[in-house]
Specification:
The protein has helices at about 20-35, 50-60, 110-120, and strands spanning about 5, 10-15, 40-45, 65-75, 85-90, 100-105, 125-135, 145-150, 155-160, 175. By secondary structure, the chain is α/β, with parallel strands linked by helices. Strands 5-4-3-6-7-8 form a 6-stranded mixed beta sheet, with helices on both faces. Strand 3 (about 40-45), helix 2 and strand 4 (about 65-75) form a beta-alpha-beta unit. Helix 1 (about 20-35) packs across helix 2 (about 50-60). The protein starts with a strand and ends with a strand. The structure holds guanosine-5'-monophosphate (5GP). Guanosine-5'-monophosphate (5GP) binds near residues 49, 105, 110, 156 and 163.
């Protein structure tokens, strides 16, 4: 493992090792296995950043479950903020189902808050958020994050699915901007 990497014009230093990630993912999967015992949750993994986390998490989940990959699409529309975001790819009926959102990182929390609002009209029986990383110092909304592998400082990170300008997703460790 290299201690620093270059992604495009920026340099990053390793901050969370592959071994630590694996242990935290297992810990969170065990919590889900315990909390959802007897249920068949549907995991909604938010693309692109969560694809590696979702793959590792699901292999530690021992419940009968489904997974669907969704994307939050932004487009300019007629709204006061000028931006409307909607969920693309929600092909499975989640009515009456327990939903677990799988996210790469919660920063301001606005993305997850919006996603919760968008999913509620589909009437799932419950919705929980499961994130790989959380920056508590950046949260701008009151968000209940039930499952979190690791809390991190307010720095920019890449690797293990997370990108900088499209690059840097393909590492086993997580790196912080230096
Ligand atoms: P939020 O709506 O919580 O502010 O933003 C969440 C999204 O911002 C994440 O899904 C991710 O795409 C992006 N993001 C926030 N912080 C980071 C970071 O440190 N590194 C990377 N690669 N993406 C981040």
């Amino acid at each position: 493992m290299s201690n620093t990497i270059q992604v495009k014009d920026k340099r990053f230093a390793v901050s969370i090792s592959e071994a630590e990630i694996r242990a935290e993912v297992k810990r969170v999967a065990d919590e889900i296995n315990r909390d959802y015992a007897g249920q068949n949750p549907i995991f909604l993994a938010v693309l692109n950043g969560s694809f590696i986390f979702a793959a590792d998490l699901l292999r530690e989940v021992t419940l009968p479950c489904e997974i669907s990959f969704v994307r939050l699409a932004s487009y300019q529309g007629v709204s006061t903020t000028g931006e409307i975001r909607e969920i693309m790819g929600l092909s499975t009926d989640i009515t009456g189902r327990p939903v677990i959102i799988v996210e790469d990182i919660v920063d301001t929390g606005l993305t997850m808050a919006h996603m919760l609002e968008t999913l509620k009209p589909h009437n799932p029986s419950s919705i929980d958020i499961c994130t790989l990383l959380l920056k508590p110092g950046k949260l701008q909304v009151d968000l209940d994050v039930r499952y979190c592998c690791k809390q991190i400082p307010d720095d920019f990170v890449v690797g293990y699915g997370l990108d900088y300008d499209g690059f840097g997703r393909n590492t086993k460790d997580i790196y912080t901007l230096i």
